[in-house]
Amino acid sequence: MSSYFLWIMLIGMLLMMWFVSRRQRAMQEEQKRRTEKGLVPGNWVRTIGGFYGTVVEVDGDVVTLATPLGDETLWSKRAIAAIEEPPFGSASAHEEPGSDVEQADDDSREPEQDAAEPQS
Where in this protein does the record put region Disordered (predicted)? Predict the structure, then answer.
């Protein structure tokens, strides 16, 4: 009787393992499908090595990615981990606030220069 119990437990464990692996495969296929769909020029991607870049061109299994500075590198499609924005702002987004800061600095310097100049 105990051998029947062991066989039932073994079969139950094998079925659970099969269902879990099947679900994992389905999730991996869905992730792969979303990544393939998102590989269009202009989208930000993250590689498995942690590199962030924008897609410039997709040619078969080769993806051309551009850095925020404009340098282009070639990557395998398999190296693309996800379609996602980088944790930092793009180079163009950093230019606008920087110019506002510089303008604010210039405005704050004007009264200092007026005070430093001797009055006649």
Answer: 86-120
